[in-house]
Amino acid sequence: MWGFRRTQSAEESALFSHQLRRALREPGCPICRLVRESEERWIWTLLYEFTGDPEIHALLARSLGLCAPHADLMRKVVEGRRLMTPSGVARLYETVVKALEGELRQGRLRGNAKKPECPLCTYAKNTAERQAYFLAQLLSTREWRKEYEASDGLCWPHVRQVLAQAPREVQEWLTQDFAGRLERLRRNLSELQRKQRYDVPEPVTPEEADSWREALWRLGGMAFEGLLVEDD
Ligand SMILES: [Zn+2]
Ligand SMILES: [Zn+2]
Fold this sequence. Notes:
Elements: H1 10-24, H2 30-49, H3 54-63, H4 68-80, H5 86-105, H6 119-138, H7 142-149, H8 156-165, H9 168-195, H10 206-220
Helix pairs in contact: 1-2, 1-6, 2-4, 2-6, 3-5, 6-8, 8-9, 9-10
The structure holds zinc ion (ZN) (2 copies).
């Protein structure tokens, strides 16, 4: 379960389209959101059920734990969700600490040597790739295009990922849609600056007021402060 299955079933397609439809109705990039949700679930499942699993212990020993953003997300999950206890993290990281001690003892100070990627980074990349693939297919239909147009749309990194897997005609449609969003964003950014001058009495619209935040996520992708997946 720590990796990613490459199979594709009707059931899986239904699940992906259900998730994408829901995410399109939430603020910001739908793929960023789904990736983040999947990261939170991965951590929750790991800590709830698999802290004794030799496979995940071996993975974490090789990567020497999680990367900084994912380690911080693990902290948030432990602090923010029910049924989570710090002892799960303690159990996993005892292994990681031992692994690092072992390396130091053997004099294998890694310096520039490449250590394996954080397993949650690998998982998140695969999730994004998969969601991008499904969205690329779904955007062939009018119904999904309408849904997409009414949404906040994708961030640029995920537009690129969808474009890479989309049929030609979807590529053209999505590129045009994104160009339109950029044009609106640029107008709002410029209006925000103009209206913030002391001698301009016109009110700033909500879109203009928010445009600098949009620019940050639209170009770079989204970061989320609180947990997206909560206890029922
Ligand atoms: Zn995104
Ligand atoms: Zn990571």
